[in-house]
Each structure stands twice: as structure tokens, then as C-alpha cells.
Write a structure and sequence with these properties.
mainly beta; four-stranded antiparallel sheet; 1 helix; globular; single chain
């Protein structure tokens, strides 16, 4: 099979080059997509809602200047890593901070074009794994970083950091941080310990989880920007809501599953991203929740960001083509917003030997996509669930509608006789 596969790929590649001479010059490569990729963090520029930033998992930092219609790779100076969160300088949105998992906090002063680590040699984040970063709206030079070893504070834009975890349980993993711009109160979502608050710039912390069960984890927090005192907490047991600035909490009617991301929008609109249930939205400040009429199927929603009109979601596992999705109608419907966001892991490619414009590509886990226009557009094909990662794609050299796919070492071997529309198992991959 390997010899046949190699021969088919060589012939198909030659045909593809001959058929598409305008795509790339001699010695140059042009991306054919498919667009997308796992997106961990999102942020909308508070001074210009047409500017949106996306941090990916190991695929770089992207920026859109047209509200998500198109994206471009930027971020010179950022290491290859998982960009956990994005925060703006409260007085100058061209200054941004990001937390890169396992590396530290980085700062850009030119709207994301170039970056530098905020502290010498990345300390103290070489030893402690950072999870989130927040800027103080009333003190632009003050930053807070949540890590797997508690909270750190910087009073000089990140040049130096000091631990600020007094009152937190020992070894607290802080997954979410928000700051009330009116009072300066900080709220921290802690793994297996609920919500904590500080009224003295993180010098001391007190539990603020009355109404939540013991041992609850809080990966996400969101404050109502209208100043109503409403706070939402995304937990591993659903969404909790507080209307008294975190003193007491009530469980909402949202699905009681793991919530990884939250975002508030104007007029009480709120959005929640689940680990495997997709997106839910609320029109009444988080009191009641609804599923969208159409949009991304159940997937891991890792990041959410809302502007005045549009809201953006970053997805990861559970979808053949993941990336950024956008809603322009308060979360009722969603569409892909990832043109030129080229962060997908492509595990295999095959070209129809009789039609070089027909391509197949294996992406991410068990995703398979197909293009009939030489890579200009792609659509996902449905494979049997639970197969694993694609290892190889082979098109029959005499019957191009017959396609074979092997999934993972010693995984299932699949066959399609209709160009990838339907599939059946025919054995195990060697």
C-alpha cells in the first residue's frame, strides 16, 4: 500500500502543479488552507471593535482589522506556545499583554506586531505555569497573573513580580482573574476551591463562594460592564450568578457541565463556552440561558470575546475544522470567521489523480476535509466517531471515487466508494 500511495501522491502533485501554475512562484509556497486552528484566547480592542486578536495553541498570534472577516499572523517575539489570555492596557489599547503557558507574560506596545517578555528571563514564570493575566483599570502599570502557584502582582508593567497569595489555599491554581473597575475589587477563580476576592490589591484574599458547593472549580469569571454588580462564574458544574458583587451565588438554569469561557456584552447579553456542549447565550444578564439556533456543533469553546455588536468564540477539539466563529445577532446564529487563520494541524493530503482540483486533507483528531476547487474552499466529511488521528489518505488510482483512510496506529481502516460522503470499516490499520 505504501508504494501505491507514494506513486499516487507523486502523480497527483505533478498534476496539481500543472493545473495551478498561478498559486506560487518557483521556490515559493502558497497556503491552500484549510483555514482554522485551535484558538485559546480572544480579545476585542476597546477603542476599535473592528480590531480583534486571537491567541492559538502553538500556532501563533493573529489579528483582524475588519471585525473577523480576515486574519493575519503577527506577534514577532512571541514564543511558540499556548497563548492563554489577552489583556489590554486600560488607557492605551495599542499596549497588550498575553500569558504564554509555561513561559510568562509578554507585552506589546505596537498593537501586537512585536513582543517582549515583561520580566528578565521570564521569571518567575519559568518555574510556575501561568494561566491568566489581568490589568488594573485604575492603575495602568499594575498587572496580576494567576498561576498554578497562586497570584503574582507587578506594579511596574511587568518588570518585576511579587507573590500575592495570602489567604488562598496552599498551592492554589488560579484559572481566572477579573477586576471591578469601579471598586478595584479583584475576583479569582481557583481550581477546586471556588471564588476568592481581595479588596486591598491582592495583599490578602477571602473566600467569596457562598452558595457554591465545596470543591468546585472556577475556570471563568465575567463582570457585567454596566456596573450592576452582577458576576458570572463558569464552573465545572455549570454557571453560577451573583448580583451582590460576589457575596452570594445562585446556580442558573444553564447546563451543569464544565464552562471554560464567559463574556458579557452590552444590555445584559452574556455568553458561555462549554468543554463539549458548544455555546450558550443569555439575554437577561445570565438569569436564563439558551442554545443557539445554528452555529458550531458541540465542541470545546476555549475563548470568548464580545464587542458592541459582534461576539467571537474560539474552538478546539471536537470539530473537524475549528478556529474562530462569530455571531452578529446576540448569539442566535454563528458562522466561521477564520479566513487566513492557518493554524490547523494537517496530518495527511491526497490529490485525485484524475482531477487535480479535488483534494483531501486530514486535520486535527479524526477530521477529514475535501476541496473540489484546488483548495480555495473546504468542507468537512463525516467519519465514524472515535477513530483517532488520521495517518494516511489513499485514493484508488483507477477509481478515484474510492478513498481509503487509516486512523491511528493499529486503528480502523476506512473505505468510501462515493468520494468521502459515506464510510465503512474494512479492517485495522497495520
Amino acid at each position: 500500500m505504501n508504494r501505491i500511495a507514494s506513486l499516487v501522491l507523486l502523480i497527483a502533485a505533478a498534476l496539481l502543479v500543472a493545473a495551478l501554475p498561478a498559486l506560487a512562484g518557483v521556490g515559493a509556497w502558497t497556503s491552500l488552507g484549510p483555514d482554522g486552528g485551535p484558538v485559546r484566547s480572544l480579545a476585542v480592542d476597546p477603542a476599535n471593535p473592528r480590531v480583534v486578536y486571537a491567541g492559538t495553541i502553538h500556532s501563533g498570534f493573529y489579528k483582524s482589522t475588519d471585525g473577523g472577516d480576515t486574519w493575519s499572523l503577527t506577534g514577532r517575539g512571541l514564543p511558540a506556545g499556548d497563548i492563554m489570555t489577552i489583556a489590554f492596557d486600560p488607557r492605551r489599547s495599542s499596549t497588550l499583554y498575553v500569558m504564554v503557558y509555561g513561559t510568562g507574560v509578554y507585552r506589546s506596545t505596537d498593537a501586537g506586531r512585536t513582543w517582549k517578555v515583561t520580566s528578565h528571563q521570564g521569571r518567575p514564570f519559568v518555574q510556575v505555569i501561568g494561566l491568566t493575566v489581568a490589568t488594573d483599570p485604575r492603575r495602568p502599570r499594575v498587572l496580576y497573573a494567576g498561576t498554578r502557584a497562586g497570584i503574582y502582582r507587578s506594579a511596574n508593567g511587568g518588570a518585576t513580580w511579587k507573590p500575592r497569595s495570602r489567604g488562598l489555599p496552599p498551592g492554589s491554581s488560579v484559572r481566572a482573574l477579573v477586576i471591578d473597575p469601579r471598586t478595584g475589587t479583584l475576583y479569582a477563580g481557583v481550581q477546586s476551591h471556588g471564588v476568592f476576592r481581595s479588596d486591598d490589591q491582592a495583599a490578602t484574599w477571602q473566600p467569596a463562594d457562598t452558595g457554591m458547593p465545596d470543591g468546585i472549580s472556577v475556570p471563568a469569571l465575567a463582570l457585567d460592564p454596566a456596573g450592576s454588580g452582577t458576576i458570572l462564574a463558569g464552573t465545572d458544574r455549570g454557571i453560577y450568578r451573583s448580583t451582590d458583587r460576589g457575596r452570594t451565588w445562585q446556580l442558573t438554569d444553564a447546563p451543569e457541565d464544565i464552562v471554560l469561557a464567559l463574556a458579557f456584552q452590552r444590555r445584559g447579553r452574556a455568553y458561555a463556552g462549554y468543554s463539549d456542549r458548544g455555546i450558550a447565550h443569555s439575554l437577561d444578564g445570565g438569569t436564563t440561558w439558551q442554545r443557539p439556533q445554528e452555529g458550531p456543533p458541540p465542541a470545546a469553546i476555549l475563548g470568548l470575546a464580545a464587542g458592541p455588536e459582534a461576539v467571537y468564540a474560539g474552538t478546539s477539539e471536537g470539530r473537524e475544522i475549528n478556529g474562530v466563529f462569530r455571531s452578529l445577532d446576540s448569539g442566535a446564529t454563528w458562522g466561521a470567521s477564520q479566513r487566513n487563520l492557518t493554524g490547523l494541524i494537517v496530518r495527511g493530503v491526497a490529490v485525485d489523480p484524475t482531477d487535480p482540483l479535488t483534494l483531501y486533507a486530514g486535520v486535527e483528531l479524526n477530521g477529514l476535509v475535501k476541496s473540489t476547487d484546488g483548495g480555495a474552499t473546504w468542507r468537512p466529511l463525516d467519519l465514524p466517531a472515535g477513530g483517532g488521528a488520521i495517518q494516511q489518505i489513499l485514493i484508488h488510482p483507477l477509481q478515484p471515487s474510492t478513498v481509503y483512510v487509516s486512523l491511528t496506529l493499529n486503528g480502523p481502516l476506512l473505505r468510501s466508494d462515493d468520494g468521502g460522503e459515506t464510510w465503512r470499516r474494512i479492517g485495522q490499520s497495520p
